[in-house]
Structures are given as C-alpha cells and as structure tokens.
Amino acid sequence: MNAQDAPTQDQQTTKMLDNITKVCSLTSDQATKATPAVKQFIASKEADKAKYAGDKAQLKTAMKADRQALVTNLKPVLSADQIQKLEDHWKQNAQNKSTTSPE
Taking the mean position of all CA atoms in its chain, how far away is CA 79? Predict the structure, then answer.
C-alpha cells in the first residue's frame, strides 16, 4: 500500500464511528457526540504510529493507552452496556487477529 493509498484521518474516523454505531447500536445523537472522541483517538493513533514506528512494544503500549482514553471519553455518551459491547468486540477482533496472524 502506498502512503497516498492510506485512508485519511477523516476516513478512518468515519469507518470507526460506523463500526461503533453498528456494534453498539448508537443513536444518531450518540454518534454525533462520540465523533470528537473518535477523531481524537485516530489522531493519537496516527501520532503513535509515527513516533514508535520502529518499536512494536512501545507502539502496542501506546495503542492500549489510546484505546483506554477513547473508552473514557465515550463513557459519558454511551451506556455501560454499549461500552461493554464495544470492549467485547475489540477483544474478539484481537483474538481473531492472533489466531490468523503468522506472527
């Protein structure tokens, strides 16, 4: 993938927000209120990728902190059940990646 083919932060935000909306059954009001938190998460994630490009362990630690910050920022917007659905979804994705990844 070329750098020019990489999705923009706005595209990543839209994709992630669509995914969260689907997984958590967000209302349109919740989706609107969640947008700034998702934008902040994407920006932090991209900054961490650049900062820790050569250090997988540091990147993993930073990404975990980014995810925790996202959950903290989403808690005032989502119900406890919705937060749990999102965290369960992320755990399932992580398990799927670890079982299908050759690493």
Answer: 18
pLDDT tens for each residue of 9-48: 999 999 999 999 999 999 999 999 999 999 999 999 999 9
SS3 letters for the chain?
CCHHHCCCHHHHHHHHHHHHHHHHCCCHHHHHHHHHHHHHHHHHHHHHHHHCCCCHHHHHHHHHHHHHHHHHHHCCCCCHHHHHHHHHHHHHHHHHHHHHCCC
Q: Which residue type sits at 32?
A: T
- Distance (Å, whole) CA 79 – CA 77: 7
Rounded to a whole number of angstroms, the CA Rg of the chain reads 14
Residue 31 near residue 21, CB atoms below 8 Å: yes
Give the predicted TM-score (pTM) of the model: 0.84
- C-alpha 72/C-alpha 30 separation (Å) is 15
> Using one digit for the tens of pLDDT, what is the confidence trace for 89-103?
999 988 887 776 554
